[in-house]
Amino acid sequence: MRWLKFTASGKTSWGIVEGDRVIAVDGDPFAGWQRTSRMLPLSEVKIELPLIPRTFYCVGLNYLKHLKEAADKRGEVPAVPDRPEIGYRAQNALIAHDEEVVIPSFATDKIHYEGELVVVIGRKVKHLTEQNAMDCVFGYTIGNDVSERSWQKEDRSLWRSKNADTFKPMGPWIETEADLEKMETIVRVNGKETNRFATADMIFGVVPFLVELTRYFTLWPGDVIWMGTDGASPDIKHGDVVEVEITGVGTLRNRFVREER
Amino acid sequence: MRWLKFTASGKTSWGIVEGDRVIAVDGDPFAGWQRTSRMLPLSEVKIELPLIPRTFYCVGLNYLKHLKEAADKRGEVPAVPDRPEIGYRAQNALIAHDEEVVIPSFATDKIHYEGELVVVIGRKVKHLTEQNAMDCVFGYTIGNDVSERSWQKEDRSLWRSKNADTFKPMGPWIETEADLEKMETIVRVNGKETNRFATADMIFGVVPFLVELTRYFTLWPGDVIWMGTDGASPDIKHGDVVEVEITGVGTLRNRFVREER
């Protein structure tokens, strides 16, 4: 099932995508819902951010090529993490599918994308085991972990480099039935493929993260975990359109624009 | 004005504290409210967490003695930050006044408090100036940035060390009229004073942080910024009661208990 938050005729609601149509529902997928008789062409609705997570988790280094690329840039030998460690991103930075990533006028040209699988939590859980961890996963969506790399070198906590307003596109919807083992992540800039990797080819997968996190944390419905990216990005310029496709989930598309001085 | 979120007779609402009583209001202080005729003794209500912030900001190193102490522990020369840099904490960890901080059974004895001033944002703002920055401040509350120091040494992003469930007590209420320049932060363990410092004695104050953050970020009503702490903490043990008082704001009190194996 493909859950979409959308606005049409001034009303924002959840809906279920079927082919090129969306069926509006009353309620929401976490607390309870039922179908309405309202059906709209997908092309005629404004796609909204699926949700604002209570806590916004994000894995920093979880694919080998990306790890090596990041280490090379720092002139270091890549150190592969020996356990699942989580980081955070900031809610202010979230935008929806088709909304614009605004590059601040005073940013450098080192603007990079990172296409990521996003795990959406469906239930309040703690102390998960390898056996039951996946039961708390409501579905998957897609994230673009936009970064300003010159700030990233200077920031103690990646505050501006990763969390400037509009730097966290997420969407377009939440897919509940995709098979992680079959997914490919494909990134395109202005229609031209620039990255492709097996989404599941993580250093630590979804299950080890869920087990380790919930030794310490309660996960809540609507929490998201961005699972990291592989490979490197070219510098993204004003007017570029970046698409992150994850097969079986969907395609997240955002245009980048540079703020005028 | 002193804004309290509380529960009485099974109903949770906002109220205004006057002396030892609380007057319930309809609505909330951010979106609009009005007084009701319901008045209760403060001692008879359950004090709730004032709010769950949309984004949870926290300054890591913002007082000189704390900075020096942290550097000494790492065997380093203290490096004073040359600009305001922000970090993040996680919403899962928040608890209210008088709720218990639960130390995981597998944590070490290096459990420390950090008594902090918390700035509560009242309006949606960006691009603040030195002149108008304080206009977005709704009021102040108090935070205890509980830390497990052995995990802190190992964590890449302070994920467990700072954000384990219950490690972020905040409250008891939001005070809208306190004068930052006159505040003192006083910490007591089991009634005995262990720290005292001028709350405003920060490396970077509230205004520089608001100006710098809003170059990059939109702040939203209910966002919080924890402003850092001074000095050091003794190791906190099972059964200890930690009180963080900020004069003119209030006292946040929490008992620490060690989870049984």
From TrEMBL, chains A, B:
Q: Where does the record place the Fumarylacetoacetase-like C-terminal domain?
A: 56-256
Name the InterPro entries for this protein: FAH, Fumarylacetoacetase-like_C, Fumarylacetoacetase_C_sf, Rv2993c-like_N
Taking the record's annotation, the residue ranges forming a coiled coil are none
- What GO molecular function annotation could you give as one example from this UniProt entry? hydrolase activity
Question: Could you name the domain of life of the organism this protein comes from?
Answer: Bacteria
* Keywords in alphabetical order: Hydrolase, Metal-binding
Ranges for domain Rv2993c-like N-terminal: 1-47
PANTHER family given in the database record: FUMARYLACETOACETATE HYDROLASE DOMAIN-CONTAINING PROTEIN 2A, FUMARYLACETOACETATE HYDROLASE DOMAIN-CONTAINING PROTEIN 2A-RELATED
Q: Return the similarity comment.
A: Belongs to the FAH family.
The protein here is known as Fumarylacetoacetate hydrolase family protein
Q: What is the originating organism of this protein? A: Bradyrhizobium diversitatis
